[in-house]
Specification:
By secondary structure, this protein is mostly helical. 72% of the residues lie in helices and 1% in strands. The protein has 21 helices and 2 strands.
Length: 468
């Protein structure tokens, strides 16, 4: 018995040492003998990453801004979360088979130069999310500890960067711990929030305006899906160290379930709170909804959740920067994301962010959706291909998807397309139009240009499709 306990303690100690060792790999393929872990870690990572204030915010938009009743908002949140969770689940399966992140694999259908475009977009997306979460986390820490915004903002940003600097193993370790801690901390605010909210609320036409019920419902689905879709571009980054033989279906199920449960829980709570108050920042929860002791616990939960979520943006943003062609070490790229994201957050994040937050989420879906469509078509029906030196058929398909979405885009104050202007209810369809157009275009173009080569049957082990 004593020997068994000693062996278990040694294993735990060894696992902790490995998880806290600074990662030395960049974007190159991970060799098979350097891989470990299993699908379960994808559940904890995506569950804890969705238990955060931005999930609460996206749910609150449904009732407080778009005018849906709580039950209507819940249905839209369930559907939108399922769309985003499906994307994360599918894209998570891309990591083990090739040992590299999704952006590296993008070089095959889009070409080496073409793949640099989404890499740059992912980099700036990561910086923007880092900024959003840093500000929200700073508000929570400031409310919890008192003092000025500056020290709270510095604490949050430094914590996020520190986790990303250590790297892959430490991120998974932190997320496993938070998958236990955050639910415990959020239980109180959930019980209180649901009890105080008007769960029997009805549709409010005055809030929906020209959208009407159909438009408000569709927009809630789009916003909720876009939030998770933005994470899907990172998904393979956190599975690329898993063995090539990791069962895809099990990996999909773990990533999907973790994302969907975390998203639906916190977003539906946000929708419930939105029936009684419009919460602009975490600080407003204290003044308008929560009593003292519960408010303290909630601020702790929100501070921790924004840090554990935003470290993903810092880590994956750094990898995107390297894939875009910048020559530097991974840790240096992490600092670049931290500096740019921190500067954006400090400069623009201390005011009212609601309309910008809504537009930001929708714009993310508009360009990520056609890119994911290209990757799905490439993965499930294309024959083995060699990466083109410039721009592949996938890049053309991606551009066609974006072009098709333009008339449907609706970001008031930024751009409203002609179809969205004449039919506001269709303004939430841009991402779906982009996805379908890009997918169909890539399917057609690869049928025309496909060379008669043998099907790729062992890509996961050989990495023949993945350029160095």
């Amino acid at each position: 018995m004593a020997q068994h306990s000693t062996t278990l303690a040694q294993k735990i100690k060894g696992s902790l040492r490995a998880a806290t060792a600074v990662e030395t790999s960049g974007v190159e393929p991970i060799p098979e003998d350097g891989r470990s872990g299993g699908p379960g870690s994808s559940f904890t990572l995506w569950f804890s990453s969705n238990v955060q204030f931005s999930s609460l915010s996206s749910g609150m938009l449904a009732t407080a801004a778009f005018g849906l009743g709580w039950v209507q908002a819940l249905l839209a949140i369930v559907l939108g979360s399922a769309v985003g969770a499906t994307a994360i689940g599918v894209m998570s399966t891309f990591g083990p088979r090739a040992g590299v992140g999704l952006l590296v694999q993008t070089r095959v259908p889009l070409g080496r130069y073409g793949a640099a475009v989404p890499a740059v977009l992912v980099f700036f997306k990561a910086c923007a999310w880092f900024a959003v979460n840093s500000v929200l986390g700073a508000f929570a820490v400031q409310t919890l500890m008192g003092g000025g915004f500056a020290p709270a903002f510095a604490l949050v940003t430094l914590a996020q960067v520190a986790i990303a600097l250590v790297g892959y193993g430490f991120i998974h370790l932190v997320q496993k711990a938070m998958a236990v801690v955050l639910p415990l901390l959020f239980i109180g605010v959930s019980v209180y929030g649901y009890a105080k909210s008007d769960l029997g609320s009805h549709f409010a036409p005055d809030k929906a305006g020209a959208l009407g019920f159909t438009g408000a419902f569709a927009l809630t689905i789009a916003v909720q899906a876009a939030r998770a879709l933005s994470f899907s571009s990172y998904a393979a980054d956190y599975t690329r160290y898993m063995p090539a033989g990791t069962p895809p279906r099990r990996l999909f199920a773990c990533a999907f379930t973790g994302t969907w449960l975390g998203s639906v829980w916190i977003a539906s709570l946000g929708a419930a709170i939105g029936t009684i108050a419009f919460i602009g920042t975490p600080t407003d929860l204290v003044g308008q909804v929560l009593p003292g002791a519960l408010a303290t616990v909630t601020m702790l939960a929100l501070g921790l959740s924004t840090i554990t979520s935003s470290c993903l943006d810092c880590y994956s943003g750094a990898l995107a920067w390297l894939i875009a062609g910048v020559k530097m070490a991974r840790w240096q790229a992490v600092l670049v994301v931290g500096v740019i994201g921190g500067a954006i957050g400090w400069t623009t994040g201390q005011g009212d962010y609601w309309k910008s937050f809504e537009n930001f989420l929708i714009l993310l879906g508009n360009w990520i959706a056609p890119w994911l469509a290209v990757m799905l078509v490439h993965r499930f029906r294309a024959r083995a291909q060699s990466p083109t030196p410039h721009f592949g058929t996938g890049f053309a398909s991606w551009l066609l998807g974006l072009a098709a979405a333009v008339p449907f885009m609706s970001q008031p104050g930024v751009y409203v397309g002609p179809i969205a202007k004449d039919h506001p209810a269709l303004g939430s369809c841009a991402a779906a139009v982009a996805f379908l157009t890009a997918g169909l275009a890539h399917y057609a173009l690869t049928r025309v240009h496909r060379r008669p080569t043998a099907p790729h049957t062992h890509t996961a082990h050989t990495n023949k499709e993945i350029p160095a």
